[in-house]
Amino acid sequence: MAWQFLLELMVLGSFTGFMAGLLGIGGGMLLVPFLTFMFTREHFGADLIVRMAIATSLTTILFTSVSSVRAHHKRGAVRWEIAGWMGLGAVLGTFAGAQVAGLLKSGWLAMFFAFFVGLSALRMLMVAGQKQAVGTAESLPLRPALIGTGSLIGFISSLLGAGGGFLTVPFLSWRGVGLRNAVATSAAMGFPIAAGGLAGYVVAGLHADGLPPDSLGYIYLPALFACAATSVLMAPVGATVAHRIHVQSLKRVFALLLLSLASYMLWKGVHAMGWMQT
Length: 278
Fold this sequence. Notes:
Blueprint: H1 3-23, H2 28-41, H3 49-74, H4 80-103, H5 106-127, H6 143-160, H7 165-174, H8 179-204, E1 215-216, E2 219-220, H9 221-242, H10 248-272
Helix pairs in contact: 1-2, 1-9, 2-3, 2-10, 3-8, 3-9, 4-6, 4-8, 5-10, 7-8
């Protein structure tokens, strides 16, 4: 592997970590499209590119979630009784989702990513600048429902390479959990989501053909370690900057960037399905 490629991966990790700390948004929505572009340029197998980008992005959360959860836990914001049961479901859901991802055509994965990220970006544009609504009374479901919800969030996250915060936070807020606790509990959910995804994508890719060197299943290890290391370093920097500037306008710009990346992934998906003439 050329040192230039490794340097680019480190820069990518720095950027995604900084943006995650600045805006409180998981880096997976950025990592997957950029890794897809970089893996394409490096001539990875056409049917492996999106799958490996998703698997690698998801696994980075194992490292990036730890520092975030520690910070939230010190402030007593994590609702561990919620994170525990939903996390149990998330492990199962991400493992199952990885097996499904291993069977799907890469084009469908790319379009699935484009759909969800596009929706998230549009929602971000609509709510940017709005005041947070006053929450309703807390009414959490029973433990089996929490496990089931965690499984669904984990399953979807495994197909997107993301930590699930875009689903967990709205769900907990809808059930009356305060925003501060919802965000902290969502951060705690990142680790089991990533753990299930790690196991799932390793198993799903054990016998895949054409994997590049330094791969563990569908996980590309150089990208995992380069992006995770620099992301962990830069996320606190972004969080510090967030307390000094007004980030609402930046969220609009970030949403437009996400829409552009979603469009790219949609194009990749359509192209991979053979629906577009080259």
